[in-house]
Structures
1.
Amino acid sequence: MTVDAAPKPFAMLGDPAAEACEGDSCLLPPPAPASTTQD
Amino acid sequence: MSNPIDVQIWSDVQCPWCYIGKRKFEAALEQFDGEVTVTYRSFELAPDTPVDFDGSPVDYLSQRKGVTPEQAQQMVDRVSGIAQSVGLEYHYDRIHQTNTVLAHELLHFAKAHGKQVELKERLLRAYFTEGRHIGRADDLVELAGEIGLDREAAATALAEHTYLPDVKADMAQAVAYGIQGVPFFVIESKYGISGAQESATFLAALTQAAAERDAAPLEAS
């Protein structure tokens, strides 16, 4: 599977203030700038 | 005849907002006049969580978020109330907090066998409503079998981690897209919607994407 090299220019829709994404459900995994693989 | 509208959804199977967002998105699909193909992409919210977390979801939230147990309980109560408003029953008193990487591998297995959407719903209901464990291979194989997937093939895929590269690729794609929370919906590789937004938002996005596609000049195929 290939991975796009750069973010696509999404047009974000919806109300940012209405994003029901808070609490633990929206925690990001630890940053992995060099590699996204898991051991 | 137009091709279906493509929707890619990054989410996790122990993400309460993802299940709520799924219901809101499905409500939009019921009103949308057109075909849609949905693909679930993997997003591990907490890849460092052990398969058998020693404690309740409130304990987990309290530790992870650095909030008091009372505040964690308030978070759980709030999201449970919102879930109820879209017809979902969350039973946090039964939930087994776990690691979801195997569940994501199984979702890719299900995708390869044409049953990803069914498995996604089965896993979410098992986790939030039924209090079933979704972090262990044996439990996952049982759930796969319940929706008609081949148990033996599923067990082999999990044991051999056949689909782990696909899980990692989804995570890498999420990072590349700058996705910072889930659920995250990408429509026709053109529009992004973050969070469990209202059904009207999803419907408007689908309608807009379909109108723009239909208005575009036909390309030789």
Note: The longest strand of chain A covers residues 11-13.
2.
Amino acid sequence: MEMTLRALGWATKLLWIILIATVITIAYSATQINIAFGDPTTAISGEAVTISMPINIHNAGLFDLDSLNVTTQISDQNSNTLAKNTTFTQVIPEGTNVTAIHMITINITKILAQYSYLLFNDTSLITSQYVAFNYANAIPLTAHSNQTTQWGAPLSKLAINQVTFQPLNTTFSLANFQLYFENHNEYISINGTTRIEIYDSHQRLIGAGTTAIDAPPNSSFNGQIVVPIHTRNILSNPTSVRTGYVHLFFETPAFSYGPVVIPYG
Amino acid sequence: MDKHLLRLLLPRVLKAAAKSAIVIILFLVISQFLTPLSNFFPQAYGLVETYVVVYVAFIIVGELTKGSIYQHVLGMGKALFFIGYAIYALNNGIITQTIQSVTLSVNLQIFLVMIILIGMLNLGKSLLLIIDYTASKAETEEIFVRPLEQEVPAV
């Protein structure tokens, strides 16, 4: 019995020594790790916006740091994922310095095609960042943060005023109206063209044209649009053109979207 | 008070007071190192403080019941408290804290396993001590008390 009790006592002491030594060395090593997030840079190429962020990890501790996972997700208020990317580093051995580039690409055309309300409504977007790693092959650690950023609609308050028809000559008339929108977005520049199609109340195409639009970030566009129309389209059924629909197709370097259907009359 | 009882208790009380004083001084020293932890784990100080209070209580009662079976029963209670409190304090091994807008989560289950193992060893040791105590007591009765009873003829 005495031997057993003595053995139990030694085992307890040994476990205490191992526990305390492990806690002290891991705690000391953890203070020697330096994780620095660099300034993010934004690159716009075509319809994609790429945000890159360098992550510098200096592991001066006594243990390896493995399975480093950095994930960024941008989602809207309805929890729809707009963009997501993960950067994974297998292992950062002790005493090494590693720089990983974490990138997230936002395809504006794809997002706006799927979530068209973002074109017309200002809203808040949620950026979730998740960092996880395993320290000393024993302690998994995760950090998670949510940040809210304001999304400015590039075609906010899009509207046209009353369409008026003016005869140009015996063959053509001109449909006149004012196109107005505000670009609330900080990054997207609306610099392109708008294709306009005018349909009468019977949904017959009575005229079409293209006009240039230019609205830099945080500005508004207010332009007079003139679309030539065959006079016979008006004369054949004058009452049907009093009301109808204008279809707008936007073509910009950042996105292509259409039709936006706006009734007139 | 009975002189014999006083002579028995006084050294034990003094020993318990000395042991408690050492533990309290150690706690006061360690609590200085807990201050930097307070940002990440604000409950740390309170948890350690509660543990020290209970531990001191165990020391005092343990010293007063020294030499009896209660000392070992108390040892079992201490081991069980150690295990239970470790599970509670380490939140089943996963500590989650929110600092400003960042939620940090650390999985300390490996430490919890080690602590539970230490507690189990102490529990086993106390159990063996109880068995040893009762066995040796029964043995003493067998050797000394029964022969004496047999010698005295029943009236």
Note: Chain B has a mean pLDDT of 87.
3.
Amino acid sequence: MSVFCGLDIGSLATKGVLLKDLHPLAEKIIPTGGNAPETALSLFQELLEEVRVPAKEVKAVVATGYGRISVPFATRTITEISCHARGIAHFMPQVKMLIDLGGQDSKAIRLKNGKVLDFVMNDKCAAGTGRFLEVMAQSFRLTLGELGSLSLQAKSEITISATCTVFAESEVIGLIARGLPKEEIARGIMNAIAQRMAGMVNRLGLEEPLAMSGGVAKNPGVVKALERELGTTILIPEEPQMIGAWGAALLASENV
Amino acid sequence: MNLSNFVQSKLQDGSALRLLRSPLIYRFLSLFLGKQSPSVRFSFHLARDAYLKRKPVAFASLFFPTELVYALGMIPFPLEVIAGLISSMGMAVPFLKKAEEKWYSQDLCSFHRLAMGLALEGYLPQPDLVLSLTSLCDGSYRFFNNIAREFRVPHILVEVPGNGKAKDREFLASQLRRARAQLEAHLERKIAASDWQEVFHHSNSLREELLKISSLQSQVPCPVSGEAALGYVGLIFTCAGSPWGSELFASWRESLPGGPYFEKHRLFWLHLRPYYPSPIFQFLRERGVSIVGDELSSYLWKELDPEKPEESLSSKIYSNFGLGPIQNRIFSILSLVRERKAQGVISFSHRGCRQSTGGAFLMKEVLKEEGIPCLILDGDCVDPRELNWEQMRTRIEGFLEIL
């Protein structure tokens, strides 16, 4: 039996996929926590236990994500850029451009047949990432999903002028304190993240079909804001957060 | 005894300020000089002559033609190169902070900020004057103007206009003649024909050495370390016109290891590199990346003619393809990329450097049309606080995966 594993160790969540002949045996997400190597090992073991496969049956493990270098049992490390490209090509082969919005970074990737042609990513700043959204949701005392849904109720919007996450948080707290409509503030937050991301997409030159992966793709508020900003429809795979791990597992199977 | 380590330890314990101006320390260090590399010996002589004021000292901007300085028996003290050197010793941050405390914004080029920090802390020798060009670096002449005011010495500025057409070249030659006259008056010394002959002979010998290195860089696999070549860039602009130039580069060329070389990818580098200790080049080496050239050490000038000194220097300045319209830079780099058989380009976008970062996008577009991937790597050459290695690592790794 040829089993392959892909592990995507992100800043907030670690995702794992076990594949056999391109069919998923198991998929799982756990919080990364403070010890990425331990989390990766524990997720790997959980995946194997779930399907009762001994570790020796796994032909290759590809680690990706920011914690990829902390996985001593990985056969190979590949960047999340290549893994997300490979992963999305598996589910949506027609996609020419991918937005990967993760916990602490964001990327725009131009691709062809699952291969990366070019990419841009954020630099040194968490504005425009999942972390930005988390901080904003905390200001509202809402979950990420609730914040997204709230933004969809807005008829108009309030502009969030600060780019920096910390300054934007104080701006949002100030707007809430002034009693301004929360849904309009929420939409302003979604627009702020969308504008930043759209800037990256436009640097590469928008190509369609455009898809989105990463945990933030589950937030309808951000997706709608991005669609408005880019003037196009964004395709969302069924499990956007798992795309990197899927890509890693596929690349593991292709490189043996 | 390792001279570099000695200097570093003295900078760290704060005694360097006193030692830099002590004749005894130079006498002591000279006992160990014989076994050192030419670049260390050159640095020693430069520091000794400047701090002990054995000769008149000119703070010269990076692209100023040092042949004019050497012809007058002066020492060109290269502030940007010194900033890179201090950064390579891991000592940049206190001096950068000193400049920032005096309102030098973090948006300004860190080479200049660091050099200003050194000036404010009293680490620089007293110059006799300051020389700068308006070419390439847009912040340079303003920085050198401030430096001249700080040290209360004259600032001679040479304007480099337009595109390098015949009229521009004539104008620049006239500017250089004016600068020469000002320098001669200030130093009360005339440049003789024999001075030009000697200085141009050294500059032309350096050029010959650079041509030899350039041809080695086209070999597959490339025997020249791109990291070292980027480290030597400052010396090209400091040694031109001195006997050290050809000696230093010949010695480096002769010391190149004979191989075998592990070469998986060949990349061309744009702008300068980070000089502070960082894992970047080890990371590239481990992945079989050869840096087969960089733009600043790849521009070569025509042989200088001592019969027409200012015209020759004007032509040398204009041979830098970074001058004039962006097309000059783009197409020269494209031709170098082909000549060196590079598969990709890394454009290091030094924060605060307008002329380099400004053209990066256009450069990337043209390279893309030619099927040559280009990674724009944002960072800083001197300020280690600007390095976010994990982000940079992912970018470089992702780029290598594209190749």
Note: Chain B touches chain A at residues 361, 368, 373, 378, 388, 390-391, 394-395, 397-398, 401-402 (CB under 8 Å).
